[in-house]
């Protein structure tokens, strides 16, 4: 070995004099209170390995670095090499840049079985990502069992057919699609994640993206302006007008949902969506207009804010914290809420300057359902082109916050993968990897400014070692040369954005 070990994400400091040797398998671990939370110090020598962590999580992340040093057998389910691994004798000192290093997986549009979710927890942990944001409910499906409202899964977890792709021609998969996680399934997922120092953040979307819930319980919708009993679980994609009614009965219903969600998910944050809520029905609804007058609100945006504030207080009373998409800023932001910024940087900047914590995940940078290269070879082309280099040059703290006290309000970042056209594990793998490895380095490592980052070195480390690790893990990632034949989707229409992406430095 003639170069520094090919680690991803890159550690803060690596000391190596070129000496390597067999790994004995002896690993000694301890918690060192002098180290920061999640930080670790790894020393590998002829006598084995010692890992000191600032806490148990730090020890675990040190183990992940040692795993990379040990070679490909450490990523296989069973070893195939007969000889002990040869490892570099190094000292690694490391700590994460951000506390929130996440990945959002949409299991509402296309359901993924429990085992696939557990597998993704393993993949996140191997890359020192520590948040799995599960998008559990949407117009196209409700995926969490709620015992007091059984029709949410009896009806809301299934749709009769599914739109294939975007745009023209209209194509349909006429097979029913669905599935859901039982409460015990989700408890298992949470426990499995906790063992790997990954927090699972549930998302129950409201007041928009709620057609699956309304199909199950029509009284949740705006029955004074449409026949909610005729609604079915949505089979198409896009933003739809069928949103929750702003009534006390709906609040009580979702309080009941969230009581069971809190019983399953012990983490601090609960995501309530809040995005893409069309307010046409509220404008036409006598009930909604009466509620606006009763509460002394200015308009429908403030009506949505009233709903968000209600659940912010409700969660705070139970020791939890609300987080939502940046639309929750409209009409006034709930005092204790955190913001997940997806529409460029503007909402996140405003929230941080107002004293709210922010997770940066702009669609123009880190939406992994968007294509990975230009041209017609990418399966179901959608969105903007986000190459591996684009993701590597993503900067979660925008220039307008950098160097100010408000920068500390950016508590982290994540990549989001919506699954309208990612219908199974293989498609999710293709869209997520290798770009999620780049996001992991952005979230963990203290990198220079985007235009100063050494992408050539990152690409070298990927080619020298990390693609082989993904192969050993069984990840069906996009190869640098492009999609393999079975990864292509000929004939399935896509939809690309017409407007160019804005450069990061304008944020």
From TrEMBL:
<feature type="region of interest" description="Disordered">
    <location>
        <begin position="1"/>
        <end position="22"/>
    </location>
</feature>
<comment type="similarity">
    <text>Belongs to the glycosyl hydrolase 20 family.</text>
</comment>
<dbReference type="InterPro" id="IPR015882">
    <property type="entry name" value="HEX_bac_N"/>
</dbReference>
<feature type="region of interest" description="Disordered">
    <location>
        <begin position="478"/>
        <end position="507"/>
    </location>
</feature>
<dbReference type="Pfam" id="PF00728">
    <property type="entry name" value="Glyco_hydro_20"/>
</dbReference>
<dbReference type="InterPro" id="IPR029018">
    <property type="entry name" value="Hex-like_dom2"/>
</dbReference>
<dbReference type="InterPro" id="IPR017853">
    <property type="entry name" value="GH"/>
</dbReference>
<dbReference type="InterPro" id="IPR015883">
    <property type="entry name" value="Glyco_hydro_20_cat"/>
</dbReference>
<dbReference type="InterPro" id="IPR025705">
    <property type="entry name" value="Beta_hexosaminidase_sua/sub"/>
</dbReference>
<dbReference type="Pfam" id="PF02838">
    <property type="entry name" value="Glyco_hydro_20b"/>
</dbReference>
<feature type="domain" description="Beta-hexosaminidase bacterial type N-terminal">
    <location>
        <begin position="14"/>
        <end position="95"/>
    </location>
</feature>
<protein>
    <recommendedName>
        <fullName>beta-N-acetylhexosaminidase</fullName>
        <ecNumber>3.2.1.52</ecNumber>
    </recommendedName>
</protein>
<feature type="compositionally biased region" description="Basic residues">
    <location>
        <begin position="496"/>
        <end position="507"/>
    </location>
</feature>
<keyword id="KW-0378">Hydrolase</keyword>
<keyword id="KW-0326">Glycosidase</keyword>
<feature type="domain" description="Glycoside hydrolase family 20 catalytic">
    <location>
        <begin position="98"/>
        <end position="446"/>
    </location>
</feature>
